[in-house]
Automatic annotation (TrEMBL):
Keywords: Cell membrane, Membrane, Transmembrane, Transmembrane helix. The keyword Repeat does not apply. It comes from the Bacteria. It comes from [Mycobacterium] wendilense. The chain crosses the membrane at residues 26-54, 66-83, 103-125, 231-254. The keyword Membrane applies. It is a multi-pass membrane protein. Pfam families: CbiQ (PF02361). PANTHER family: SLL0384 PROTEIN. This is Energy-coupling factor transporter transmembrane component T. InterPro entries: ABC/ECF_trnsptr_transmembrane, ECF_transporter_component. It is found in: Membrane.
Amino acid sequence: MSAALPDTVADRAGINPVAKLAAASVLALGLIFSVDWVSALTALVLEIALLLVLRVPPRLMAVRGALVLLAAGLTAVTILLYGQSSGTVYWHFLLITVSDGSITLAAATFLRVLAIALPSVLLFIDTDPTELADGLGQVLRLPARFVVGALAGLRLVGLLRQDWQYLGFARRARGVADHARLRRVAGQAFALLVFAVRRGSTLATAMEARGFGAHPTRTWARPSPFGGREIALILAAFGIVAVAVGVSVGTGHWNFIGNL
């Protein structure tokens, strides 16, 4: 990373992306076995504390977490209206039933989606795709051909929007984009697919010619260190899951997902 970047970004970027991926996976796997609001809320509070320790700015957390909050809210509304009904029924219309059970389940689902998705989004705020590919290839020992190919494809995703604009300009210049909007969008989407396939084929041929398919001789330009900070982050994720589950079981709110 450049020295001109803020210290907070540089510090977070110093953590290997594989450790971030492992921590997010631990949190997700540890929270999917129960649907209760206690464990989700406990994990969410501890995750926010961990993100603050990692120096993620609160404003950035609020901005990036807005979409997660929206997704969690929409999921909770669906559970509220169509979830399992129990206890007092407050409103019923056709298939919609709002009851004590659906309200509790909706609240638990809302908190659980936040607890699972929020760290996954925020931990990868400043992760460079090249650094992630280096970690997957050097730390996890994934096949270099797969890793580098996926990285190259990911780098080309940003060109799709530019290609879509150029296709639109070209079709308007030829006078074929003034009518039948639905047909125009379908034809332009097919042309974009053809462009993507051609560019991918060209890139694959160029990479093959430069030796990217020779796995035994694959070398990495930059090392991907994995040390104490990475281990501490993964252990912190295990600790958050352990505390969340322990508090839920201790308070009697543990609700194994298989019992729903």
